[in-house]
Each structure stands twice: as C-alpha cells, then as structure tokens.
Write a structure and sequence with these properties.
By secondary structure, this protein is mainly alpha-helical. The protein has a single domain, classed as Winged helix-like DNA-binding domain superfamily/Winged helix DNA-binding domain (Arc Repressor Mutant, subunit A, Orthogonal Bundle). The protein contains 7 helices and 2 strands, in the order H-H-H-H-H-E-E-H-H. It has helices spanning 3-6, 13-36, 40-52, 57-64, 68-80, 102-123, 128-144, and strands at residues 84-88, 96-100. It has a two-stranded antiparallel ribbon with strand order 1-2. A hairpin with a 7-residue loop joins strand 1 and strand 2.
Length: 148
C-alpha cells in the first residue's frame, strides 16, 4: 500500500484538535445563539474586547483571525445590537477604539461562565498534573506555529 494511502485523517492531530474545537464550539454556540442571537464570530469579538479593551478594529480582527470585511460586518452588527461602544482614543486622536458597553458586559458575564464550565467539563478527563502537562504541551504547540 502506498504511504499516502496509510494516512488517516481521523488520526491526524490537526483534524483531531479541530474536531474537539468544533464540537465544543457547537455546544457553546447553542447557548449564546438561542440566548442572545449571536454568531460565533460575534461572541469571539465580545470575548476579545472584554479581555483586551480598549481595542482597535484592526487589532480585534487580528485577535479573532478574520479579514477586514468580516470585521466591519461583525462590528456593525454588535453596534446595531448595542453591545459595544466606539470612541476616539485619548492618546491617539486618529485611532478609534472599541469597548463593551453595559449591555455587552452583561452578555459577556452571562456567556463566559458557560464557556468556562464547558472547558472544565472537557478538562475533567485529566487529573491536576495531567491538566498542567496538557496546557504546557498545548503552549508549546502554539509557539511552534507562532499563534499570536
């Protein structure tokens, strides 16, 4: 059998990590979609803004890994839903920065514990030492592919 025929996608690390991410993501998406009508990218933007605000649209696009057109649509939707605010940066009047407003903070503080509970449920398959080791190995993989 040729070597390329021995390759099994279901055993490929990248595919396996993607499947875990997808399945866990679907579970969380079912919650925030039904509860708040958010898309996955809108949730990711809210979470990124919550963690790094104030943040420019360009920086946010880099954090959630989407192009400028997708970012514009996402921000338009979040602004329309009154979940974020934008203002001129006090240190650089040419720069517009994004923040969560009170409604956005409420949405974030409702979804983030559900996201954390999902992670806790997944990580429960590991004991404390295994968890620490898994996260260390994951950090090494991320550095290897230079995720920012």
């Amino acid at each position: 059998m040729p070597a390329h025929k021995k390759f099994k996608i279901q055993n490929w690390l990248i595919y396996r990590l993607w499947r875990i991410s997808q399945e866990a993501g679907y579970e969380l998406e079912a919650f925030y979609s039904s509860e708040f009508g958010l898309s996955p990218i809108e949730w990711q933007a809210i979470a990124a803004i919550a963690n790094y605000e104030p943040l420019s649209a360009k920086d946010l696009a880099a954090l959630v890994d989407i192009n400028q057109v997708q970012m514009t649509r996402t921000l338009s939707s979040l602004l329309k839903q009154k979940l974020i605010s934008r203002r001129t940066d006090i240190n650089d009047r040419r720069r517009i920065v994004l923040s969560l407003n009170k409604k956005g903070e409420t949405v974030y503080s409702t979804i983030s514990p559900v996201a954390q509970a999902l992670e806790d449920k997944l990580m429960a398959v590991f004991n404390k030492q295994e968890r620490k080791q898994f996260l260390s190995l994951l950090n090494r993989l991320e550095r290897r592919i230079e995720i920012k």
